[in-house]
């Protein structure tokens, strides 16, 4: 009985194995083989399509990478162009500010020149009138010989003096007035018309320090030749030569000031007065030796683009000053 059961189980297992491995019948096995071949062919087709798709994706990815690199390089070029343009704009704005300042300065000098020239004309007219009066007086003198001789001698001396002054006024070129326009010479005479040396300082604290601010050193210590203008803070060179300029600025605690020495519109010196982290005021001094031409204007200003923190300090204990003299 047990043997029969065992034989039955073996037969069932054999049929199951034959069914699984296509051994049940020839038709069934062939159909399954055909299905497997079709399935394998489909898988091959899909694999080839997948490889093709991968190739396309790789090509597209490379194109995107190339475009990305190009856009990055283009963006960098545009950033450099914008930066260069901004710098040029800042320089142009600084030059415009300098020209505006110079224009205002020249206008004020023109007004002074016209006033001085009008005074010279009036003075010349007065001298001519006096000369005619003396000549008329000389012609009309009818006193005795000795008295007449004395009067004539006196009148001759006075006439000679008046003629000399008149000739000086007539020979004085109109360009001298134009020279005042550029050099800042005032109507009062000076003992050193062609020499130049000045020293001036700021009398009070400057609380309104802004960008591109011309510092007015409003208290004059020395001004040989009268070529420094305390109202504008500008020194005008009377002659071509080599000049020495120094400027000293004090800044309050925790602040800083960028300053420049400018000839016309050209920056020839720069300085930073830095009191950041200090427990007291700090100062800095700049010195420049520069060749300049007659009529050039020289002044100290704050930086036209850099920011400034704190005030410009100056009092009796320490002076923010501006000095200059002709070397040779």
Automatic annotation (TrEMBL):
<feature type="coiled-coil region">
    <location>
        <begin position="26"/>
        <end position="95"/>
    </location>
</feature>
<dbReference type="GO" id="GO:0005576">
    <property type="term" value="C:extracellular region"/>
</dbReference>
<keyword id="KW-0732">Signal</keyword>
<feature type="compositionally biased region" description="Polar residues">
    <location>
        <begin position="141"/>
        <end position="150"/>
    </location>
</feature>
<feature type="signal peptide">
    <location>
        <begin position="1"/>
        <end position="22"/>
    </location>
</feature>
<feature type="region of interest" description="Disordered">
    <location>
        <begin position="136"/>
        <end position="156"/>
    </location>
</feature>
<dbReference type="InterPro" id="IPR008983">
    <property type="entry name" value="Tumour_necrosis_fac-like_dom"/>
</dbReference>
<keyword id="KW-0175">Coiled coil</keyword>
<keyword id="KW-0964">Secreted</keyword>
<dbReference type="InterPro" id="IPR001073">
    <property type="entry name" value="C1q_dom"/>
</dbReference>
<dbReference type="InterPro" id="IPR050822">
    <property type="entry name" value="Cerebellin_Synaptic_Org"/>
</dbReference>
<protein>
    <submittedName>
        <fullName>Caprin-2</fullName>
    </submittedName>
</protein>
<dbReference type="Pfam" id="PF00386">
    <property type="entry name" value="C1q"/>
</dbReference>
């Amino acid at each position: 009985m047990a043997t029969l059961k065992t034989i039955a189980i073996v037969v069932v297992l054999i049929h199951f194995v034959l069914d699984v491995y296509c051994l049940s019948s020839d038709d069934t096995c062939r159909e399954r083989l055909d299905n497997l071949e079709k399935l394998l062919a489909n898988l091959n087709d899909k694999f080839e399509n997948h490889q093709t798709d991968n190739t396309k994706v790789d090509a597209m990815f490379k194109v995107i990478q190339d475009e990305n690199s190009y856009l990055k390089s283009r963006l960098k070029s545009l950033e450099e162009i914008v930066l260069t343009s901004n710098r040029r704009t800042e320089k142009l704005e600084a030059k415009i500010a300098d020209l505006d300042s110079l224009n205002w300065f020249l206008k004020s000098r023109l007004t002074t020149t016209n006033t001085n020239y009008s005074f010279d004309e009036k003075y010349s007219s007065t001298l001519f009138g006096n000369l005619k009066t003396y000549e008329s007086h000389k012609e009309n003198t009818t006193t005795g010989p000795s008295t007449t001789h004395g009067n004539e001698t006196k009148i001759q001396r006075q006439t000679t003096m008046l003629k000399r002054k008149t000739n000086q006024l007539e020979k004085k070129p109109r360009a001298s007035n134009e020279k005042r326009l550029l050099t800042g010479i005032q109507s009062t005479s000076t003992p050193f018309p062609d020499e130049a040396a000045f020293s001036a300082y700021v009398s009070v604290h400057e609380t309104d320090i802004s960008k591109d601010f011309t510092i007015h050193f409003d208290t004059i210590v020395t001004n040989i030749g009268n070529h420094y203008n305390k109202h504008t803070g500008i020194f005008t060179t009377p002659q071509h030569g080599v000049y020495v300029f120094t400027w000293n600025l004090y800044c309050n605690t925790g602040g800083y000031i960028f300053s420049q020495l400018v000839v016309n519109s050209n920056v020839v010196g720069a300085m930073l007065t830095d009191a950041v982290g200090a427990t007291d005021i700090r100062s800095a001094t700049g010195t420049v030796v520069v060749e300049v031409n007659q009529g050039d204007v020289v002044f100290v200003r704050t930086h036209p683009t850099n920011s400034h923190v704190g005030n410009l300090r100056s009092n009796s204990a320490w002076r923010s000053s501006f000095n200059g003299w002709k070397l040779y």
